[in-house]
Amino acid sequence: MHHVEKDTGFYNQWYRIGLFNLLLVATIGLLLRYKIVASLPWVNHKYFLHGHSHFAFSGWVSLIIMVGMLQRIHTHSSQPIINKFKPLLWLHLLTAYGMLVSFPIQGYALFSITFSTLSILVSYAFVLLVWKNCNEKIWGSKTAALSIKAALIFLVLSSFGAFWLAVLMATHSNTQSLYFSALYFFLHFQYNGWFFFGILGLFLTILPTDVVHISTGLHKCVVWMVAACVPAVALSALWMKVPAIVYAIAIVAAIMQLGGVLLAWKSIRKNIFMFVVTLSTAEKWLLGLSGSAFLIRVVLQALSTIPALSKFAFAYRPVVIGYLHLILLGCITLFLFAFLNGKNLWRAHLRLTHVALILFIAGFIGTEGTLMLQGFGYIGWINIPYTNEVLFASALLLFSGVAMLFAAARNKTLS
Fold first, then answer.
1. How far is it, in rounded angstroms, from Cα 172 to Cα 113?
2. 329-352: per-residue pLDDT in tens?
3. Could you count the other beta carbons within 10 Å of the beta carbon of residue 83?
4. Which long-range contacts (CB under 8 A, 24 or more apart) does 169-176 make?
5. How many separate helices (H) and strands (E) can be counted in the chain?
6. 74-90, pLDDT tens digit by residue?
7. Are 103 and 51 a contacting pair, CB within 8 Å?
8. CA separation for the pair 353, 358 (Å, rounded)
9. Whole-model pTM?
């Protein structure tokens, strides 16, 4: 998973900034968990939660995916386009920090909405820049180029949900169904669109070219998954009373996603060994867990078409939070750790890195297991003791893991 790339020092600096941002996300997460266990009157839970989620999306996941895409284009393009990248990255970072500061202070209000809007405008500029460089020559295969294009389209599409949310907040609209519809629309196209196809595109560039080119089935699978993503937004609407046609669309989308996964497995299973042997032990674990989290996501989405399960999934806050963390921490963040590992970001401190990853994974499993237990406890009206304390301890593990990873990445290493 190691490549010779141009200006690795410049890009590794940005990857470190992304890791530092993840550390800030983990710090706020720890603060919010502590507030539930003890009292922190100065922390407005709702406001800090908005800051936590917006900054996790922009300052961590989006930043790393953007830098990864730009590095790929810079390395494989004959055009000297790095000077266009630099101001874009700084502007993106500025809007991310703007949201990090303004949301905890005022919630959805003038400054936070301004920074959110600016963040979206910067993302449009990024989409235009990358779109011009979405070809097979740069991305190594038409499959990877297709995945990157899909990610960019869904990034733009998700912004409509964000604008819709901002309007509802600014006008103090208290129509719950409108608010949740806008929120789930935004989340769907961020998580299952921009994030998923973004990391898939990066993943396809690190797979051996033989695996990608031999696998015509792999291209079909990506086409299939892209086609399923738009109707799959209906899966986010099943908590409302929806017309039969919407329900039918949701079922078809869930089946298409399952079909896509089977297609992918059939097409790469013969050649995947060529790739696995090139990985370090840490990368095998990270990619294995990331892939498992993705499979669980697809299965859960399919199960959510069962009315009784759908009501359960959307009715209980721990279940919703557990699902979102499953994707953000399990599927996306663990993949990004594997991706950064391939950039030699912490080669000088392998032992520290391994301890950090073990702590992070333990924190992730602790969080997921406890949130699911809380959800099941609600069904039987059982109050499971010490769940908040376990969630705080898990958040502490996540924070410790990220802090150690950031420490391991701080020493400059040569790629």
1. 13
2. 999 999 999 999 888 888 778 889
3. 7
4. 169/108, 169/113, 170/108, 170/113
5. 19, 0
6. 888 777 677 778 899 99
7. yes
8. 9
9. 0.92
